[in-house]
Every structure is written in C-alpha cells, then in structure tokens.
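User: Okay, second chain of the day. Same drill as before: sequence in, structure tokens out.
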Amino acid sequence: MEKRRLGKSDLWVAPLGFGGIPIQRVSQADAAELLRLAVEKGLNFIDTARGYTDSEEKIGVGLKGIRKEVILATKSMARSGAALTDDVERSLRNFQTDWIDLYQLHNVRTEAEWAELTAPGGGLEALEKAREAGKIRYIGLTGHLPEMLLRIIKDYAFVSIQFPFNYIEQENRQELLAEIKRQDLGTIIMKPLAGGALRQAGPALRFLLQQPFSVIIPGMDTKEQIEENFAQLSQTYTKQDAELLEIEKGELGQEFCRRCEYCLPCTVGINIPGLFLLEGYYKRYNLTQWSLERYKGTAIKADACTECGVCETRCPYQLPIREKLKQVHTLLS
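Assistant: Same drill. Structure tokens below.
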C-alpha cells in the first residue's frame, strides 16, 4: 500500500488509519479482531486518547505480537507537567508497550491552556522529557479551532497536527493549511464523516483521499466498516460523489454544530459544543450509556441555560442553540 511520510518524522503511514473512539463499545475480543483485520489490510496508523475510556487497553491487548507493525498514537487533555507525565506512564501500561510513536496534546483550545502547557514544568516540557527518555518518539497537536491551531504551530515545532476536515467542515482552514504546508507538518484528519453526520461514507472518504493529507482516521467498530473503508483506497472521487455529498450537506443545513466554539463563553458556563458532541456520540456513535454517564457527570448541564440568547448572536451558522440545549437535556437526562 502507498505510504505517506508523517511530516518530517521517519514514520510512514498508510493514508487510511484507525480511529479509536468506537471500539469503546465493543468487547475486548471483537476489538482485537478488528485491529488485526485492519493491520492485515495494511492500515498501520492507530490513534486513540487517554479520555476514550478503555480504548487504550483494548488496543494494547489487540496488538499483542504485532505491536512493531503499527504506528501508535494517543493524546492527553492534561496540561500540567505532573499530570501529563502520569498520563504518558498510564498510556504505556495500557498499550503494554515500551514506546508510543506519537503523543499529542489533546484539543488545545485557549491561550490560557497553551500558556499552562508551555510554562516551566508544564505539559510540553513533560512530553519533551518523555521523548528524551525514549518513552515517546514524536510530539503532536490536536484541536478543533483553526485560528488557535495556527497560532500554536507558529510557536512550537510539532511533527504533526490533527484536526477535523470533511466535506462539510472546510471553512476557515486555508491559512492553517498554508502554514502546515510551509512547515511540512504531518496532517492527521479526524471526523472525516463529520462525527457520523455524513451517511455517504464512501464518497466522503474518497473526497479526502484525493487530498495531500498524511492519514485519515475514521472510527470503525465492525469488519464491514473496515472492508468498506479500505475499498475506497482503490476508487476515484467522481462528480457523482460530489453531488451526493452536496445533497447531504444541504440536508444537514443549519442544524449542524461545527464545534467552532464561537458561542463561548456561555454566560452561565455551559460547554455548548461539548454537550452537542455528547449528543452526537449518543445518536451517531451509539455510545448511549457512555454519553449518559458523561452527561450525568457534567457540572453545568443544558438545563442551566437562562435563554439569554448571547450564544446565538455569536454563532456564525445561526443555530437555534437555546432550543437545541433543551433537546440535549431531554435526550441525555
């Protein structure tokens, strides 16, 4: 299979990878079977995160005996040096490995987070020490906000950047893509099906595979999905594909949350995009119990909304956020 270099690293990745979110809902035995099928097909890049419940553990067990055949990536939301050091050690134990190929700062959203990560004794320093010790090989960045990602990659020499890109979510990325190209960063594309919103998986993946991205990481939890996604590598993106995707884009209309976070900060502290994301996991990823438990543990729930409407004045897509928050609370309570 064709391989693409991940930025300036010595890691060569197949253009289609394995996203680790959905295997949270399958058994350990099924997860191992899926991982081995993916590797057998030639998909050598596996990505997950510390926050994806037991995903790391399942991947660790599933890769026994074939660890050296894959490029293993994970990420952490920790920001302090101590917390990130703990997460690296936990990831190593979960994966049952001596090294992780790519460890990423997970979803960096604000200047305050970046300041904490880059402060003396902060998370970035901890990753650099882990790299020096041979526990990780490369450091990457993930996030959802193009403007913030652009700001951060001008500050630090990451090897790769992971961000959402799909037929629906292409807006406000041209400057980011230009800087990525200038720095020769590896590109890891998450949410290729817009978090499951795009039902036409084949056309959506073919659209992305024609782009010069390093690797695209759809989540897969069935053999059929692996077979179907793998089949796209030998197919061509067509005019008919574009027409089908345009229809889907039109059907999603203005009700689709792109997680741009322009609605924040909420006047009462509701994490609006985060709650819409939980709704998506419930409806599209079938992570029903996980979503319900996460919502139950959320400090400020959707029903805290005072209906001030400030968020709706900021939303570039004119979403009826107040009404959608009511729907989220009804669904997840």
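The beta strands are 4-5, 12-13, 18-19, 45-47, 71-76, 100-105, 136-142, 160-164, 186-190, 215-216.

User: Thanks, on to the next one.
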